[in-house]
Amino acid sequence: MVVDPERPGVADLRAAAGLLHDGRLVAFPTETFYGLGANALDPDAVGRVFRAKGRPAHMPLLVLVDSTRMVRSVAADVSARAERLMARHWPGALTLVLPARPDLPSALTAGTGTIGVRLSGHPLARALVRMVGLPLTAPSANAHGAASPVTAGEVEASLGGAVDLIVDGGSTAGGAPSTVLDLTGPRPRVVRAGAVALGPEDLGGP
């Protein structure tokens, strides 16, 4: 399915959202790479993501939300620091690791008790999450260990028939992946340096 990445059609978004509601897998562009989307609250759909990618079970999945409000559907606690970081860097390529709600699928968190969340800076990704109305998984849409895809063709070459739909929004920016910042400890901890540069105002203070 080829769509305008800046202004995706409502009918196209509804078709993709319908598949996601049915527990299927949909690949779509984000601000960095193509992501592999599934309903993050559906244990069977989450399991399909792991099988499609050949992803080790000990590696948790991050999720995309459409708003800071949706964060609370997956996070047990949202600190004042987290709220400041969301206001400063979202939409954008900053993934915040927060305490997870206990009712999330166990595979999603890989038993860590935490969940990584991001509000994507890509208009198509954001619109799709909004249309679905649920948080979506968004690991890179490639087999585990393969290069992260920047085109729909690369998704097809890596995952093929394991994906029910590839939303082709053209090439993504690639480059560095999202920055991952863990806020579950006494001090913020950069898990992965990436596309968003964090300064003292992000890492210091209470």
Q: What is the end-to-end distance?
A: 46 Å
Main sheet record: 6 strands, mixed
Highest-level CATH class:
Alpha Beta
Q: What average pLDDT do the residues reach?
A: 94
Shape: globular
Task: State the CATH superfamily name.
Answer: DHBP synthase
> In total, how many beta strands?
9
Structure class: alpha/beta
Report the total helices. 8
Low-confidence stretches: none
Strand percentage, roughly? Answer: 15-25%
| Element-by-element helix/strand order | HEEHEHHEHEHEHEEEH
Q: What strand order characterises the main sheet? A: 6-3-5-4-8-9
Count of distinct structural domains: 1
Rg measurement, Å: 16 Å
User: What is the CATH fold-level name?
Assistant: DHBP synthase
Helix content: 25-40%
- Mind telling me which CATH architecture this is? Alpha-Beta Complex
